[in-house]
Amino acid sequence: MILGVFGGSGLYDIDGLADVRTDEVATPFGRPSAPVVSGTVGDTRLLFLPRHGAGHRLSPSEINYRANVFALKTLGAQRLLSISAVGSLREELPPGDFVLPDQFIDRTFRRATSFFGDGVVGHVGFAEPTCAAFGAAVAAAATATGRRVHRGGTYLCMEGPQFSTRAESLLHRSWGAAVVGMTAAPEAKLAREAELCFAALALVTDYDAWREGEDAVSVAAVVEVLRANVAGAQRIVRALAERAPILEPCGCARAAARAIITAPDAVPAEARQRMRALLGREP
Description:
This protein is an alpha/beta fold. It has a domain at 83-279: Rossmann fold, CATH 3.40.50.1580. It is built from 6 helices and 11 strands. Strands 1, 2, 3, 4, 5, 6, 7, 8, 9, 10 and 11 form an 11-stranded mixed sheet that branches. It is globular and about 60 Å long.
């Protein structure tokens, strides 16, 4: 099993990670955020890509999401775990807890979030944007490490890089969202088009801006919680890798099987080559 992981640059410092190597990957969509670091845990090969680049130099709006997902898929990834920081929109989701959202509201507007276009039109189903079988395995891995994880809920993905205004935070709560972040929705969309099982593991770092009497969100507070929980995320990834070979089957690997509506003889050669590399078959 080959498991792709998006997260911070220190996430791959996992005890027992063997056969470590680094790969530079070129894609039709440009360069990924960073070289891909890989290694093995048992029978699972892990592929790590820090979405914000070395030294956290890319803002959420500057990340090349298509290149990142394409790179992991072409290196053999079958499942993709997105680990990121979020603000809580619910009293029962305190800082330090993990959330496994199963729905998204995408309010970004500066991201390229599809592999289709430029000569080939496709529409994948996205009503259920995460893989239930993979999510169950992530939840089990988190529980096995002793971490408190909440299953389900809506992730509101905002453009950023500014944090929410209080009015925005209250609006997002009124929509029923559970957490707010800036990265997971584009990754979920692209993972579906790339026929990857996808799950998001969101680490709550703060209560966003809605909570009366709560200090305003700050980078310092977010980083403090993240640093305190890096080891926890590493343990979850390791536990997941140990369980990955026995995950329940699902239909994610054929999610784009009927997505393309462009006539085959109308697909340009460049688009055909790009989709063949992504899907492993003719578009």
